[in-house]
Design a protein that fits this description.
single chain; alpha+beta; Heat Shock Protein 90; 2 domains; two-stranded antiparallel sheet; 7 helices; 53% helix; 15% strand; kinase; phosphoprotein
Length: 287
């Protein structure tokens, strides 16, 4: 009798042993789904969960690889340019040319520093690693603080910055992320707005949504490009300047983590760009 029971137990465990062997023989890089054909019915729920985890890990690794490859490419250009300019300055005997080369190197390093800062912000907002604290905040207070930071620099460039936020706007969110989103919008706006132009920031809310709108006086973005600019490192053909290509992507990620959405529209009277952030008040919590 005992021998029969032992035979039954061994026979029942054979599929599990094969499963253990299949998993144990895998390399660390093999994230293919486990073959469920040899899996006992009782273990299929567990194996399906493991396969789902493998799939998520594969997507995360692919996203990481794309991000690091793109980041390396973007970092290489300003770094290489700065090295060339520094070498030119060291070998140059003319003081004015040396100063010009050093100024160009400084511009390249400033762009590199900005890009590194943006990369660090972006990495903290990856959905698989985002560990963010959300608390009730006043978006009007945040907007006033950020706009006040930028106003002096705008005046130096001959650009006016207006804020229309008549009432406090309370929601549950992450102060740092929302402030970073607004800073990126203002960075983009001043980059494309000529001297004498006006950049308008408005904030309002109803029972369901908070809306934050930034309107610049630049050339705007063609309709067929509006969806593309949210991609990482995307720059429109013909654009120049110190942009990292991450600004709107960071804005999109920050707003998405608040359950909101970002839309791009033409500015007033068809000129410039209007960026509209809408966050649901009752859902302004981490997803």
């Amino acid at each position: 009798m005992i021998g029969v029971l032992w035979w039954v137990v061994v026979r029942a465990l054979n599929p599990l042993e094969r499963l253990v062997h299949q998993i144990g023989a895998r390399s660390a890089t093999n994230l293919e789904a486990i073959d469920t054909a040899i899996v006992p019915v009782e273990a299929k729920v567990l194996v399906n969960a493991i396969n789902d985890l493998f799939h998520k890990l594969q997507l995360s690794i692919e996203r990481y690889n794309r991000f690091t490859a793109d980041a390396a490419h973007e970092l290489r250009t300003p770094l290489a340019g700065s090295v060339v300019q520094i070498h030119a300055a060291l070998e140059c005997s003319d003081e004015s040319e040396r100063k010009h080369s050093l100024n160009q190197a400084l511009k390249g390093l400033s762009k590199l520093n900005r890009l590194v800062e943006q990369l660090l912000v972006f990495s903290r907002m990856e959905p698989d690693v985002a560990m963010l604290e959300f608390a009730f905040l006043d978006l009007k207070k945040l907007s006033v603080e950020v706009v006040s930071e930028y106003a002096p620099g705008y005046l130096e460039k001959g650009v006016a910055l207006e804020l229309d936020a008549p009432n406090p706007v309370k929601l549950k969110g992450n102060w740092e992320l929302l402030a970073t989103a607004l800073r990126n919008l203002l960075d983009n706006a001043v980059r494309v707005t000529p001297a004498g132009g006006v950049i308008k920031v408005s904030l309002f809310a109803d029972d369901d949504f908070v809306s934050l709108v930034v309107i610049d006086a630049g050339p705007g973005i063609a309709d067929h490009n509006k969806a593309l600019v949210f991609g990482r490192f995307h720059r429109l053909i013909g654009t120049t300047g110190q942009g990292s290509g991450l600004g709107l992507s960071i804005v999109h990620s920050a707003v998405r983590l608040h359950g909101g959405a970002v839309t791009l529209k033409d500015g007033e009277e068809g000129r410039g760009l209007q960026v509209v952030i809408k966050i649901p008040i009752r859902k302004s919590i981490p997803l």
